[in-house]
UniProtKB/TrEMBL annotation:
Gene3D superfamilies: Homeodomain-like (1.10.10.60), Tetracycline Repressor, domain 2 (1.10.357.10). One of its GO terms (molecular function) is transcription cis-regulatory region binding. Residues 1-22 are annotated as: Disordered. The lineage of its organism: Bacteria, Bacillati, Actinomycetota, Actinomycetes, Kitasatosporales. PANTHER family: HTH-TYPE TRANSCRIPTIONAL REGULATOR BETI (PTHR30055:SF234), HTH-TYPE TRANSCRIPTIONAL REGULATOR RUTR (PTHR30055). The keyword Transcription applies. Residues 24-84 form the HTH tetR-type domain. This is TetR family transcriptional regulator. The keyword RNA-binding does not apply.
């Protein structure tokens, strides 16, 4: 497995300006309020109005940052950072190894700095069909960001079919492994599970 920095991934990037920091503070407050309310009273019983009140913003502000309630628990700050990290990988490194490094770094950062949220988010992904369905929909955003970077690195067009299939396969690995991890009570090492799953994809399904 690739060597890991123990500094949170988001902290390794240039610090945003004042406006972006204010937006991040608001998003973080809304997410934090949502997770606290959901832990106390359940996902279905928690309304956007309650989340807005608990985070001291208006419901319209919540919807401005998060189009749906599912987005509140699924959205994080990692997509732009992931694109930056992937873009910085060595030119001669294979796309699979670049993605392996990226996933490993992202998971390390998430499980170090946002462990409780990661556990709760995974629980909701497993238990709430609407959250699981929205997660699948929002993967297209990550696919576009990572696909654009890999297109630059490989000289392929962003809509190249093999590139799209590769990105879809990589993100599906994370989705299925995360669900597997959550279904089993988060007992295993998620990073090891993803690492082994990527090996399985590379080797093919053995008989």
């Amino acid at each position: 497995m690739a060597a890991i920095s123990h500094t949170p991934l988001t902290a390794q990037q240039p610090q945003p300006g004042l406006r972006e920091r204010k937006k991040l503070k608001t998003r973080t407050a809304i997410r934090g309020a949502a997770f606290r309310l959901i832990a106390k009273q359940g996902y279905e019983a928690t309304t956007v109005e309650q989340i807005a009140e608990a985070s001291e913003v208006s419901p319209s502000t919540v919807f401005r940052y998060f189009p749906t309630k599912e987005d509140i628990v699924l959205t994080d700050e990692y997509d732009p950072v992931m694109a930056s990290v992937l873009r910085s990988r060595p030119a001669g490194e294979s796309p699979l190894e670049s993605i392996r490094f990226l996933f490993d770094q992202t998971l390390q950062s998430m499980l170090t700095s946002e462990y409780d949220e990661a556990i709760q988010r995974t629980k909701l992904m497993v238990e709430v069909p609407a959250v699981r369905a929205r997660m699948t929909e929002t993967m297209s955003v990550s696919a576009k960001l990572l696909g654009d970077v890999l297109a630059e690195r490989t000289g392929r067009a962003p809509d190249d079919l093999e590139l799209r299939i590769f990105i879809a396969a990589m993100l599906s690995v994370v989705r299925e492994v995360t669900l597997y991890w959550g279904e089993r009570g988060n007992q295993d090492d998620l990073r090891v599970l993803v690492h082994d799953a990527l090996d399985s994809v590379a080797d093919g399904l053995r008989l």
